[in-house]
Amino acid sequence: MNQLEKAIVVGESPQLLGVLTKQNKYTPKSETKLPTILLLNSGLLSHIGPFRLYVRMARKFADMGFNTFRFDLSGIGDSERHLDVRTREEQHMGDIKAVMDHLDRYENCNQYIVMGICTGADNAHKAMIKDLRVIGAVSIDGYAYKTPRYYFNLYAPKLVSFNSWKTLSRQVFNKVKSKLGPKQDVIPENIEYRWVEPSKEKTEQDYKVFIERNVNLLAVFTASWPYNYLQQHADSFKKLSFGENLQVAYLENAEHIFPLSEDRTHLMTEIVNWLVNRYLNTSTNH
Q1: How many domains is the chain built from?
Q2: Contacts of 201 (CB under 8 A, 6+ apart)
Q3: Residues 153-179: pLDDT tens digits?
Q4: Which of 154, 211, 226, 243 gives 20 to 30 Å between its CA and that of 77?
Q5: DSSP string of 9-38?
Q6: How far apart are the C-alpha atoms of 77 and 95, rounded to whole Å?
Q7: pTM exceeds cut of 0.90
Q8: Within this chain, do residues 30 and 139 fall inside the same structural domain, yes or no?
């Protein structure tokens, strides 16, 4: 095994549990110290990630020279729940700060790349806004904004299909029927770990901050997300000039939690190439 894996407990009440993965034998692959990678929970999935994706990521990144910490936020997996009255967002932002403080103190870390899928991408974005130690992020199925071309790609093929017209007519009929009929009791979903996408204007303001700070971003989207062409992100933020600090990948055949091995491999390849280009290539290294 080419990595060292160490279980770490952060804090006392609540205790946050995670696993730090490091190179077994240090061989410098960069002239400067590399940032530590934090892998954030996706929804209620634990720190092993969907289909052990985070375990695989942590070991690969460690082989490249990046210390990687995969951990459970409070109330998820092996970590205890907060008992205070803060919102879940406030608690989780506090968790991420506590983890970075711990790694700063005990593992000689001082800069971080945060990565996550879905809710993990949301938390990664917010953590980068709140803490200057976060110098990069990988957002997997994070904020996506629909454009005219998105709607064209979505509906144009259906307009020439007779079956699609039948389906649309049925949907319209059922919607009208539901409006006119008696109200049905609605069973609310458990929304505790759901997130609401911020307005495009708010995200644009955040991106301006990231550009000023010269942080590196990789945005990855799958076919399961409201995203259906590679340039959709660029079309959503035409006023911004990201330069080399933003890379976008569209995995048009992948599903949201990457159940297929080949899709997990494709995702890993995109992230590894991004890490090499942005942090192991000395000409672009911070």
Answers
A1: 2
A2: none
A3: 988 876 666 565 566 567 666 666 565
A4: 226
A5: EE-SSS-EEEEEEEESS----SSSPPPEEE
A6: 14
A7: no
A8: yes
